[in-house]
Amino acid sequence: MARFLSLTSQSHPPKPSLNPFNGLTSTKSWFRFFGSGFAIRIPPDFEDIMEPEDYNAGLSLYGDKAKPKTFAARFATPDGSEVISVVIRPSNQLKITFLEAKDVSDFGTLKEAKKIFVPGGTSLYSARAIKIKEDEGYRTYYFYEFGNDDQRVALVAAVNSGKTIIAAATAPQSKWVDDGVKLRSAAVSLTAL
């Protein structure tokens, strides 16, 4: 599959940069985790922290509804301070519409979709739309980096078959100085399959 990358950027505050990929590192040597409709690269020092599924859930005589899983994948450093998570939600849960979303750009522009993916009260450090050439055309990914005094998050969102796939890498602000490039690179490695 041929992959071509094009990037548009909205950053606050604007920083002079000749290379739009400053702050990323190669993830080719990292473990590639395949989930339901996605793949993501995991840094070497991260461990799988997903809880095993409760196979008895939904089997009671009272017709309990099966609860949807919160996370499709979840990895953390041994001390648990840095976490990479993937969640999958039906796109119509994020934005009410009668039409099935085919691409993350169906949520609006990068700026319009910010209110869906970036919590209010946080500082937005960077926002980018990334277009990847695939066999069937182009797929758009939205990237946001935001945080508050305590936490920082790199988030990538994409849509595939009416489902929104969101990868987020989170760490305390104090660790972002050393590990921000690794965490940002992990989030950007998300691929919708």
TrEMBL record:
PANTHER family: KETOSE/ALDOSE ISOMERASE, PUTATIVE (MOG1/PSBP/DUF1795-LIKE PHOTOSYSTEM II REACTION CENTER PSBP FAMILY PROTEIN)-RELATED, KETOSE_ALDOSE ISOMERASE, PUTATIVE (MOG1_PSBP_DUF1795-LIKE PHOTOSYSTEM II REACTION CENTER PSBP FAMILY PROTEIN)-RELATED
UniProt superkingdom: Eukaryota
Recorded coiled-coil stretches: none
Segments of this protein annotated with the region Disordered: 1-20
Polar residues bias locations: 1-12
Gene Ontology CC terms: chloroplast
Entry-linked InterPro entries: Mog1/PsbP_a/b/a-sand (IPR016123)
Protein name listed in UniProt: 23 kDa subunit of oxygen evolving system of photosystem II
